[in-house]
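URGENT: need a sanity check before tomorrow's submission.

F., can you look over the ATP-dependent Clp protease proteolytic subunit record below? I want to be sure the sequence and structure line up before it goes out.
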Amino acid sequence: MSLNLTSIPKVPYLGDNLADEKKQKKQKEQKEQKEQEEQEEQEEQEQEEQEQEEEQQEEEEQEQEEQEEQENPNLEQENTNPEEENPNPEEENPNPDEEKKPNPKPKPEEDEIWVELYYRLFFGRYLFLGRALEKQPADQIMKSMIYLNQEDQTKDFMFFISCRGGGMLQGVAVYDVMQFVTGDVSTSGYGLNASMGAFLLHGGAFNKRVLSLNGRMMIHQPHMSPYDRRRHVESGSDAEFISRLRTYILDTYITRTREDPEIIESLLERDIFLTPEEAKAVRLIDEIGVEGMGLDLTNLSFFYGNRDDHEMGLWQS
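Structure tokens as predicted:
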């Protein structure tokens, strides 16, 4: 028996239809994406053209203004500022329902008060050393002394010291400047003054060296700081330089205290702490306590008075 294939109905293949639909969908998406990109490019181009037109317009306006200014140089003088005509215009309140808050008055700055205080102390020739004597405070003290001495060579200085020590080079430098200025340098020590602090305290003018009741002095054999020692070791002059400075400091103590050199040498052999009474006994200081020494910082004329007016009760006999 033979089969008649023509009589069998043809069934469509669904796979072909699905492939065609996917292809059409992909083509549609690509077309939409391309149109979107073209639209974005067109918008960017229009925006650039608009910006160029605005820039060109601004340049033209600026050129026109410059040209008008050149043609009318007195135009600015003739045109008055509306803010100057109305120095106190009424400000419009954008929120009428809200009450206008008054602007707070500016409070006096604390920095200005401190600057005024330092100004008065500086021109009153009151100098302070309240830390270890390093390069920065030593430079500041020396510059202040030299500047004020050039301003008036008849006035004295008051040097307040609370120094636990410091560099030997800096201490000798400040001491030399204290002897260089023409005005007397009165030294007043508070707390612990050790090493170079004690050396500067005793280096004030005679009969004008004071240590507070609770103050202490510590003297010892002078030595260099590690920083200074490292530099001089590299230059090969460490031993000679230290020996010369130690001799200078020792001779200064002996000369100013007028004590037996053996006593001073024995005191400097080790760290020795002295009470005010002991320091006065070996003439490192002249007075104990600061009673009668008043500082009038309310009147600047006090700073510029005569040398006789600068005398303080502590030094009056």
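My own read: The chain is about 50% helix and 10% strand. The first strand starts at residue 126 and ends at 129. If you see anything odd, call me.
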